[in-house]
Amino acid sequence: MIRPLEITGLSKTFTTPEGSFTAVKDFNLTIETGEFICLLGHSGCGKSTVLSILAGLQQATEGGYCIDGKEENEPGTNRGVVFQSPSLLPWLTAAENVGLALSQVKRSPKLARRYLDLVGVEEAHDQLPGELSLGTQQRISIARALSLQPRFLLLDEPFGALDSLTRFELQDTLLHAWEHDRKTVVMVTHDIDEALYLADRIVLMTDGPAARVGEIVDVRFARPRDRSVVLKHANYFAMRARIIHFLENHADQSAMRVAS
To answer: Each residue of 184-207: pLDDT tens digit?
Structure first.
């Protein structure tokens, strides 16, 4: 059966002054339409490398990924990307930043305010990024990615630089926008509670070098999600403990490799 997004044998080796370094080795994952997937693991385990390859910003050394059975290795407007930094053009207003993305897919820049409204910042349409908080800038980045009407939304720790309260607000903003048309999402995070709140499946990665898929956790909390309901769910803390156990075991294994 042809899958919407299938990653097969993906490996990435970098050349460093000390020699070759394999960040990811034989990473395999199949993702269905409309799934919200979180990649979670220790810092440096290759999560962002996998996402960068899916975005077409890096090339796999071996293996790769297919969309609808067709191999891809270049950037495309069928994938909207949001980075940890908002990456907005500082000389353009919020609406102009979103409008620039709209023009890439031959859609009217006048639609920009609709996407800003979807993420709750329509009132900032005529303001420059430097006049706005980091949280508002990141909302604009999400609006810009959504304006492409991509099939896949790729998120690289988009809330990692925000304070806790702003992070919670933007998680809810993201879920609201996602419920609007259920894009297929692959999101990198190292926040366990964030992954449990957002994801349908959490893909736990082993430590590098040669990181791979170590375990997959199905998250079956009802949608649309409500934070208080999720936190009170009978399985929440058991799932959280399972993830912590996985991460602690791999931290111990990593330390043993270093010690040896």
So the answer is: 999 999 999 999 999 999 999 999
How far is the C-alpha of 79 from the C-alpha of 105, rounded, in Å?
Answer: 12
Contact between 82 and 137 (Cβ < 8 Å): no
* Tokens linked to 62: 């071996």
Q: What is the mean pLDDT of residues 12-37?
A: 95
Between CA 35 and CA 3 the distance in angstroms is: 12
Q: Are 4 and 32 in contact (CB under 8 A)?
A: yes
As beta bridge partners, residue 82 has 155
Are 107 and 114 in contact by the 8 Å Cβ rule? The answer is: no
DSSP one-letter string for 144-155: HHHHT--SEEEE
pLDDT above 50 (res 255): no
What span, in angstroms and rounded, lies between the C-alpha atoms of 147 and 141? 10
* Domains of the chain by residue range: 5-73+153-158+183-259
What are the phi and psi torsion angles at 120 (to 5°)? Answer: 85, 20
User: Can you tell me the mean pLDDT for 73-102?
Assistant: 96
Is this structure's pTM higher than 0.85? Answer: yes
CA dist 73 and 171 (Å) reads 29
Q: 3-state DSSP call for residue 25? A: strand
Q: Was domain 5-73+153-158+183-259 assigned CATH 3.40.50.300?
A: yes
Mean pLDDT of 119-147: 97
Task: Let me know: does 206 contact 41? Beta carbons within 8 Å.
Answer: yes
Confidence (pLDDT) at 155 = 98
